[in-house]
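Students often ask what a holo structure prediction actually looks like on paper. The answer is less mysterious than it sounds. You provide the chain, you provide the ligand, and the output is a string of discrete structure tokens encoding the 3D arrangement of the protein together with zinc ion.
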Amino acid sequence: MPKKRKSGGKTGSRKGSYTNVQCSKCGRMVPRSKAKAVTRRTSLVDGRMYAELKKTGTIIQSPSSKKYYCISCSVHMGNVSQRAKAERK
Ligand SMILES: [Zn+2]
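The corresponding structure tokens follow.
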């Protein structure tokens, strides 16, 4: 039987309905289970400065930011690829 979600929609605490998140690229509202979450480290200093500071032994913290992307945006960016037509369902 084809499954829409891996968990069957049972991991959230809201009895089958997921909270919506906004896509970071296009702004579309997508259910959290459907959205692709990408965690990236963001650097506060630029590359040349970073290398120089690292040489002197400075500890530079780089906070990570979590972003959600809708399916069409993540396909467009190459994070996920389309499955073959026969494989889809
Ligand atoms: Zn999007």
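Residues 23, 25-26, 28, 69-70, 72-73 surround zinc ion (CB under 6 Å).
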